[in-house]
Amino acid sequence: MNNLLIFDNTYKSQNYTKEALPKASYENCVFDNCNFANANLTNTTFTECEFIDCDLSNANVTQTVFKETLFTGSKLIGVKFETCNTFLLSFTFERSILDYASFYKLKMKNTLFNHCNMIEVDFTEANLNTSIFYECDLKNATFNNTELEKVDLITAINFSIDPSINNIKNAKFSKENVIGLLAKYKIEIKD
């Protein structure tokens, strides 16, 4: 993919909207308060990297590799993750904004979404088995032919999942949020 290897570097308050991040394989690097909004990150590799308080909104991640990558307090609005390189794809999202992002057809087993806003995120045909959505807002998120076996949605809010078109075997829900499984029936549930 690329020959430049960069290890153990920290990048702080960099603006990659004007000057692009060099195409390279970044390993164990930290990007702190960097701006990647609308940036071209194609064919870049991030292994065991951390993005802290970064803005990656609408970044182009075509054939980008994310292996064991952590996003903390970051904005990833509109990112089309389905264009990533899927080999060994794994990431964690904490206190991040993923509104309008797309994970179409991705295999993302065991993914942690912790305290994330995920308005209108597309999970169509994705495999999220054994993933955790801890205190996430999934308002208008799309779940269509999505694998949700053993997924933890106990503290998630505002989701609507149709059990007839999604695999929810052994998924976990709370009494309060189980209404999200019945939304298509337009029924009224009283306490």
Task: Jot down its keywords.
elongated; Pectate Lyase C-like; mainly beta; about 190 residues; 4-stranded parallel β-sheet; 7-stranded parallel β-sheet; about 0% helix
Structural notes for this entry:
With 191 residues, this protein is mainly β. The chain has a domain at 71-184: E3 ubiquitin-protein ligase SopA (Pectate Lyase C-like, 3 Solenoid), CATH 2.160.20. 0% of the residues lie in helices and 18% in strands. The chain is built from no helices and eleven strands. The protein has strands spanning 5-7, 10-12, 25-27, 30-32, 45-47, 50-52, 65-67, 69-72, 91-94, 112-114, 132-134. The strands form two sheets. It has a seven-stranded parallel beta sheet, with no helix packed on it. The protein has a four-stranded parallel beta sheet with strand order 1-3-5-7, with no helix packed on it. It is elongated, with a radius of gyration of 17 Å. 35% of the residues are buried. The mean pLDDT is 94.
CATH superfamily of the domain at 71-184: E3 ubiquitin-protein ligase SopA
Number of strands: 11
| Overall 3D form | elongated
Number of helices: 0
CATH level 1 class label of the domain at 71-184? Mainly Beta
Summarize the amount of helix as a percent range. Answer: under 10%
Query: How far apart, in Å, are the first and last alpha carbons?
Result: 57 Å
Tell me the CATH architecture of the domain at 71-184: 3 Solenoid
Which series of helices and strands comes N to C? EEEEEEEEEEE
The CATH topology of the domain at 71-184 corresponds to Pectate Lyase C-like
Uncertain segments are none
Task: Name the beta content range.
Answer: 15-25%
What do the pLDDT scores average to? Answer: 94
Largest sheet strand order:
2-4-6-8-9-10-11
How large, in whole angstroms, is the Cα Rg?
A: 17 Å
Main β-sheet: number of strands, strand sense, barrel status? 7 strands, parallel
Structural class, judged by helices and strands?
mainly beta
